[in-house]
């Protein structure tokens, strides 16, 4: 009988230790990100990053995304809706995290489109056709060209910019920042430096609402 | 009689310790992948395949105590130990890149964690499998006497 108790108590203790350790780890990561943001915002928002929303907005959402990531596509309209709910108070910074095979070439198209001031239009076209150019999560950048014709991009210039060291540098910097912020999956959101406690739209919504009520 | 039952008790404790090791290893690996977000490579998955069943199989040998536990638990522990050793050799660079079984995803030779400068995840795995194997063999030898 004593032996059975020993096994049950051990199992409960180990599970409890796992849960406590996981919670401690998450809160420590969250504190570290927040401190990094308060010390130096630049890891979260770079001057070159595409921005959406009022420049005077005090709430900054940093989104690390991959154009081939389905969840990023699903969240795109949700984030827009969230920003519309707080007009003029929320800004969105797009950061590149090409984690899927072949995504880096698609990200180059987006970064080059940003040089023509058409990042968001291109992103919407890319997301809309995602299932066509990224079947089974394998990004095929060559197919993307079929779906961005309506954006009105200067294609020869775009192709040239894609090869530029500037665009390459931007993507490498974003990847380096993602590593620094411990971004392991996309989409990853930070709201004024705070990461999501766990992934989900409701968690993002309450982070944004908390930040809005704290800043205004 | 009392001597026999105390010997049986200490054998029981050895298998219980094996089970604790398996639980800590399984939860530890889940912490690395699910909490810290480190993607397991192919070899890590093979080691998990050997470790996770031990968490469920070993308690079956505890109630009632089964001295034949070595017959069905040791093959898993030994297989895990061999894979962990292969993984260690790969990380150390003794096994050339060409026979590396990982073609995509996370390369098995990548070191994601290095505590005190030498403790890596495959080393933890190898130590755990080695301890479980040793304790199981010890249990078998003691109970055979």
Describe this structure in words.
The complex is a heterodimer of chains A (216) and B (145). Chain A has 216 residues and is α+β, with helices and mostly antiparallel strands. Chain A has two domains: 2-39; 42-215, Glutaredoxin, CATH 3.40.30.10. Chain A contains nine helices and five strands, in the order αββαβααααααββα. Chain A has a five-stranded mixed β-sheet with strand order 1-3-2-4-5. In chain A, α3 packs antiparallel against α4, α3 (103-115) packs across α7 and α3 crosses α8 (165-180). Chain A is globular. Chain A starts with a helix and ends with a helix. The relative contact order of chain A is 0.16. The mean pLDDT of chain A is 89. With 145 residues, chain B is mainly alpha-helical. Chain B has one domain (2-144). Helices cover 70% and strands 0% of the residues of chain B. Chain B has helices at residues 2-35, 42-60, 69-92, 121-144. Chain B is elongated and about 50 Å long. Classes of the chains: A alpha+beta (216), B mainly alpha (145). At the A-B interface, α1 of A face α1 of B.
Fold-level CATH name of the largest domain in chain A? Glutaredoxin
Rounded to the nearest angstrom, the distance between the terminal CA atoms of chain B is 15 Å
Instruction: Give the total of domains of chain A.
Output: 2
End-to-end Cα distance of chain A, whole Å, is 61 Å
Structural class of chain B: mainly alpha
Would you identify the regions of chain B where 5 or more consecutive residues have pLDDT less than 50?
Answer: 100-104
The first-level CATH class of the largest domain in chain A is given as: Alpha Beta
Strand content of chain A: 5-15%
Tally of helical segments of chain B: 4
Radius of gyration of chain B: 17 Å
Q: What is the residue-mean pLDDT of chain A, rounded to a whole number?
A: 89
How many domains, in number, for the residues of chain B? 1
Q: What Rg of chain A do the Cα atoms give?
A: 20 Å
**Share of residues in strands of chain B:** under 5%
The secondary-structure class of chain A comes to: alpha+beta
> How many DSSP E strands of chain B?
0
Major β-sheet profile of chain A: 5 strands, mixed
Instruction: Give the SSE order of chain B as H and E letters.
Output: HHHH
SSE pattern of chain A, N- to C-terminal:
HEEHEHHHHHHEEH
């Amino acid at each position: 009988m004593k032996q059975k108790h020993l096994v049950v108590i051990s199992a409960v203790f180990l599970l409890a230790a796992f849960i406590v350790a996981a919670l401690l780890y998450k809160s420590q990561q969250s504190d570290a990100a927040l401190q990094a943001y308060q010390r130096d915002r630049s890891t979260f928002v770079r001057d070159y990053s595409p921005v959406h929303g009022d420049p005077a907005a005090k709430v900054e959402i940093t989104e690390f995304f991959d154009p081939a990531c389905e969840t990023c596509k699903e969240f795109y309209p949700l984030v827009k809706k969230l920003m519309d709910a707080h007009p003029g108070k929320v800004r969105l910074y797009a950061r590149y995290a090409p984690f899927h095979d072949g995504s880096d070439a698609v990200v180059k198209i987006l970064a080059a489109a940003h040089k023509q001031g058409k990042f968001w239009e291109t992103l919407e076209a890319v997301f809309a056709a995602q299932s066509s150019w990224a079947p089974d999560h394998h990004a095929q950048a060559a197919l993307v060209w079929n779906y961005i014709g309506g954006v009105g991009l200067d294609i020869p210039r775009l192709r040239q910019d894609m090869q530029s060291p500037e665009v390459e540098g931007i993507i490498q910097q974003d990847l380096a920042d993602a590593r620094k912020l411990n971004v392991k999956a996309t989409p990853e959101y930070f709201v004024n430096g705070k990461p999501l406690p766990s992934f989900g739209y409701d968690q993002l919504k309450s982070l944004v609402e908390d930040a809005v009520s704290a800043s205004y | 009689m009392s001597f026999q039952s105390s010997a049986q008790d200490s054998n029981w404790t050895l298998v219980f310790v094996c089970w604790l090791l398996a639980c800590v290893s399984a939860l530890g690996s889940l912490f690395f992948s699910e909490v810290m977000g480190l993607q397991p490579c192919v070899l890590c998955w093979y080691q998990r395949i050997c470790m996770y069943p031990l968490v469920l199989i070993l308690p079956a040998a505890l109630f009632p105590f089964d001295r034949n536990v070595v017959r069905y638990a040791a093959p898993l522990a030994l297989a895990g130990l061999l894979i962990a050793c292969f993984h260690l050799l790969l990380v150390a660079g003794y096994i050339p890149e060409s026979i590396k079984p990982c073609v995509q995803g996370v390369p098995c030779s990548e070191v994601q964690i290095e505590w005190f400068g030498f403790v890596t995840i495959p080393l933890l795995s190898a130590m755990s499998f080695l301890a479980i194997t040793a304790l199981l063999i010890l249990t078998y030898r003691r109970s055979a006497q």
